[in-house]
Amino acid sequence: MYDNLVWTLVDIIPGQRTMGCKWIFKKKTDMDGKVHTYKARLVAKGYTQTQGIDYDETFSLVANINSIRIMLAIAAFHDYEIWQMDVKTAFLNGKLTEDVYMAQPEVFENAKHPKRVCKLEKAIYGLNRPLVAGISASMRESKSLVFLEAKMSLVFLVYGGEKELKVTGYCDASWQTDKDDSQSQSGWVYLLNGGAVIWNSTKQDTVADSTCEFEYIAACEASKEAIWMSNFIGDLGVVPTIQDAIEIFCDNKSAVALTKEPKDHEKSKHIERKYHFVRSKVEEGHVIVKHIRSEDNPVDPFTKALAKSIHDEHARFIGLRDKIEF
Q: Domain Reverse transcriptase Ty1/copia-type, which positions (predicted)?
């Protein structure tokens, strides 16, 4: 801690709250039960801090797996080199923006200035403050191919082989799959560089009374993710095609037509206003909804049971492989 300049000794300020600290000792043993390491950790008594006085809020940044998959797909296309970094105590390296004072650690009091207190420059265990967590991802890279491997699975998600780096979306829905509340199931998937980067399968929160309506709802939900992808990838600045409207394929012609219809009519006037989000994004040129044959829609496995041969065909289309061939 001295080497990392975790704190500086300062004179105590009258009226300034100072929290205590304590040492946590632990013995690490080997498989035979013999002690091979003695560990000591200095922990702040953060439970003495009061929210709104000593700190405003606490949170921990975590990795968005969708963002990671997008960057892996881009890396595979451009043949970027991927590096893995795992910082086990990443949050301890973050500098504090608040003034936090702590008593000197027991047994390690400064002999010349025993009444001074520690003004924390960096975080320590037990402290209530916003934390920046380290991101650990296990990746393997090879030329034009990047793939992720699940430890307890034999299925791989593969990226690579596309001539153009372009986002393409597919959406679908199944009619009233829940027989208890008559709600339908929505599903969508987005492909980038030959593999799925974002997907979802969820029950709709309203009851639709026609195939057009529940497919339209699915298109609306998919379009929201398209907007996020457009903003995220656009900030990266390495995918020029993201400036174009993202194509979303739907296998219902009526739903596709409804996304382009500027006015409500007799059969659509009851649809909740929030689902017309997709219509506004089509008008603004952010997304475009196109028709695709139902048998060619790769998102079918997300909404319904299929024959194995058809299921495997769709799975392969979105980049899933049961083995890797180089």
A: 5-173
Strand pairing category for 167-174 and 246-250:
parallel
Query: In which element (H, E) is residue 213 found?
Result: helix 211-236
Instruction: State the number of CA atoms in the 13 A half-sphere of 7 facing the CB.
Output: 21
Distance of CA 254 to the CA centre of its chain: 33
CA distance 276 to 187: 18
Gap between the Cα atoms of 217 and 272, Å rounded: 9
Q: Provide CB contacts within 8 A for 217, sequence distance 6+.
A: 173, 184, 186, 204, 206, 208, 275
List the beta strands (DSSP E) in the chain: 7-10, 21-29, 35-44, 60-61, 101-102, 117-120, 131-132, 140-142, 145-149, 156-159, 167-174, 185-192, 195-203, 246-250, 287-291, 320-321
pLDDT digits (tens, 9 = 90+) for 146-167: 444 433 344 577 777 788 899 9
Question: Whose structure tokens read 């043993």?
Answer: 29
What digits encode the pLDDT tens for the residues 29-87? 888 889 989 988 888 887 776 665 555 565 566 678 899 999 999 999 988 888 877 66
Alpha-carbon distance of 213 to 262, in angstroms, equals 16
| Per-state percent for the chain, helix, strand, coil, to nearest 5 | 25, 25, 45
Question: To 5 degrees, how large is the angle CA 201–CA 203–CA 209?
Answer: 125
Q: Is the dihedral of CA 83, 89, 93, 99 positive or negative?
A: positive
Handedness of CA 273, 279, 281, 283 (dihedral sign): negative
Pairing of strands 140-142, 167-174: unpaired
Q: Please check whether residue 61 is in contact with residue 94, taking contact to mean a CB–CB distance below 8 angstroms.
A: no
Tell me how many helices (H) and strands (E) the chain has: 5, 16
Task: Indicate yes or no: pTM above 0.85.
Answer: no
Which structure tokens are listed for 65? 């797996």
